[in-house]
Automatic annotation (TrEMBL):
Pfam family, any one: Abhydrolase_2
Region (Disordered): 32-51
GO molecular function: hydrolase activity
Protein name: Phospholipase/carboxylesterase/thioesterase domain-containing protein
């Protein structure tokens, strides 16, 4: 076997079916520049223009930020929504959902963060904005069709049926947008494949200082690459989260005893030929054997890789999160201040 064939096998840009093997091998960031984003010089996080119109909202605050502090030479740009009542009730602390997108929603150049808005939590927020403009529509869809990045138009994900414009039930829109702060980082794959748990931890440290977050009600969810990132982040700071909901992901089943106290809800399509069903099955089985008190596993018999549209359109997901709090306290600050740098 030549080196060329090995690269093709391992490269998700060429062979989408390699994503599971790519995660198992735990590739790290590559080609990381010393400075990867431009920051303002003051200490306040200031929203910036994302460079595209797709994140514009009128009925809910949905802003785009640079990560200001990190324990690495780079951070994640991120979208943040806050409930419409956030500024009116200044004493209330809110539950938070951290959402991690998949590889197909990653940036590969400037102003490509729009790709991360096409699915999952950001899509629901945009549908909520549409619903508030027209409450008579019980199944809103995004007000504008967000295209995939050109390089992803022919991926397996798109060939299986692009459901980014598929409507979201109004009940789901309201449950999410009016009850949670949401944080949706945007990963640039030019700097490496996969979510970095240390940098996400530093981002969360920043978020809980910036917003009134209920520290006992922080939830993590994501799909595909973000499903792996969900379990990896839970293992990185196991005493920080109220729930973990990985969709078509996988993880290190040998370490699940560290997160067995956290309620889990794994979801996966039985016909997934990109991330195999067994990736979730191994984690669920390991958690059950470790004595985890709450492990849900939803399998979709007829779905392939896109099981996230069904998962995030399910109102029970958000009710489940609202009903749960952190079981074991700790990890209030994931990265010590002396280990962080201000990105400039």
């Amino acid at each position: 076997m030549t080196r060329t064939s090995a690269l093709v096998r391992d490269d998700p840009q060429i062979n989408p079916n390699s994503l599971h093997d790519f995660h198992v091998a735990k590739r790290g960031p590559k080609n990381v520049p010393r400075t990867v984003m431009s920051m303002s010089t003051d200490k306040k996080s200031v929203p910036k223009k994302p460079g595209h119109p797709y994140a514009q909202t009128t009925n809910i605050k949905f802003e785009f930020f640079d990560q200001r502090t990190s324990n690495a030479p780079f951070g994640y740009e991120h979208f943040v929504s806050v409930p419409p009542q956030y500024d009116k009730d200044t004493d209330k602390k809110w539950p938070l959902i951290l959402f991690l997108h998949g590889a197909g929603e990653s940036q590969r150049g400037r102003n490509e963060s729009f790709v991360s808005l096409r699915h999952g939590i950001p899509k629901v927020i945009l549908c909520y904005n549409r619903f508030k403009s027209d409450p008579s529509n019980p199944n809103p869809s995004p007000s504008i069709s967000i295209p995939p990045a050109e390089r992803f138009r022919k991926t397996e994900q798109i060939k299986q049926g692009d459901q980014s414009s598929y409507p979201v039930p109004a009940e789901v829109c309201v449950l999410l947008a009016e009850n949670f702060i949401t944080v949706s980082p945007s990963l640039n794959m030019d700097w490496g494949y996969g979510w970095n748990a240390s940098i996400l931890t530093a981002l969360l440290d920043e978020i809980v200082q910036r917003y009134r977050v209920d520290l006992d009600r922080i939830h993590v969810t994501g799909f595909s690459m973000g499903g792996y990132g969900t379990w990896e982040l839970g293992l990185h700071t196991p005493h920080r989260f109220a729930t973990l909901m990985p969709v078509c992901g996988g993880g290190d089943e040998l370490r699940v005893s560290h997160i067995k106290h956290i309620p889990h809800w794994a979801q996966h399509g039985d016909r997934d030929d990109i991330i195999p069903l067994r990736a979730s099955q191994k984690m669920v089985t390991a958690l059950e054997r470790a004595g985890a008190p709450e492990v849900r596993f939803t399998r979709y018999p007829d779905l392939m890789h896109d099981s996230w549209t069904a998962a995030y359109n399910n109102p029970e997901v958000y009710r489940w999160m609202l009903a749960r709090q952190r079981q074991v306290k700790g990890d209030e600050q994931g990265v010590p201040a002396e280990n962080k740098v201000v990105l400039s």
